[in-house]
What we know:
Layout: H1 2-21, E1 27-29, H2 41-47, E2 59-60, H3 61-72, E3 74-75, E4 79-80, E5 91-97, E6 100-101, E7 106-111, E8 116-121, H4 126-132, H5 138-141, E9 144-150, H6 152-159, H7 162-184, E10 187-189, H8 197-204, E11 209-218
Parallel strand pairs: 2-6
Antiparallel strand pairs: 1-8, 3-4, 5-7, 5-9, 7-8, 9-11, 10-11
The protein binds flavin mononucleotide (FMN).
Amino acid sequence: MRKIVLTISLLLLMKFTICQNMVSHDLIVLPNPNFKSNVSIEEALQKRRSVRSYRRDSLHLFEVSQVLWAAYGTTLGHKKTCPSAGATYPLEIYLVAGDVKGLATGFYRYNPLNHTLNLLSRNDYRKQLTEASLNQEYIQEAPASIIIAAHFERTTKVYGKRGERYVYMEVGHCGQNIHLQCEALNLGTVIIGAFEDDKVKKILNIKGEPMYIMPIGRKP
Ligand SMILES: Cc1cc2nc3c(=O)[nH]c(=O)nc-3n(C[C@H](O)[C@H](O)[C@H](O)COP(=O)(O)O)c2cc1C
């Protein structure tokens, strides 16, 4: 009897350990973000520029993880790095990964609550996104891009029509967070707002409204 109980406990422990590391192919547990940096916020603000060309070099998973956290990660458990009207949090953050060490090429959704990525597709959408964005080819050249999409109804159901402007404002906060975090990591990025909404939605098969595409790569 003792042996059976021991075996069951061992099996349960093994299952728990596997779940903790999330070895599932479709769910990626991101490395924990850093909350300390050698680059001051003033330095990042002073140096921030739009960067539209990137070295042919992969990104590391810890870099992508850090930028995603800065974009919309959680703080104090239930709050986020972005201010949000009424804490309605209308944004969804997606990642197009083309060349990220430790991450399969594909399209992912960021889950801020547990700092994980969900694999949505194994396709490399960089070329299609470039075409949908007036051929701004830095999307294709960058090893990864972040897409910020908005679900307006989360905010308008609380604030009515005025909620729309709150969503646009929040996208701006999120984009600036990404910009400043990239600068602190010495990575380059640029906000892309010029694209065909319907095409981007169709390519990525997402329900929210695409607002920004932000390619990320190493500065030349
Ligand atoms: C809402 C918005 C949309 C933008 N869209 C694009 C774009 O589609 N393509 C692009 O290359 N830059 C785009 N930019 C970046 C601006 O061109 C850039 O911020 C501006 O030239 C100032 O340069 P700086 O960011 O280096 O200070 C956009 C910026 C904002 C805020």
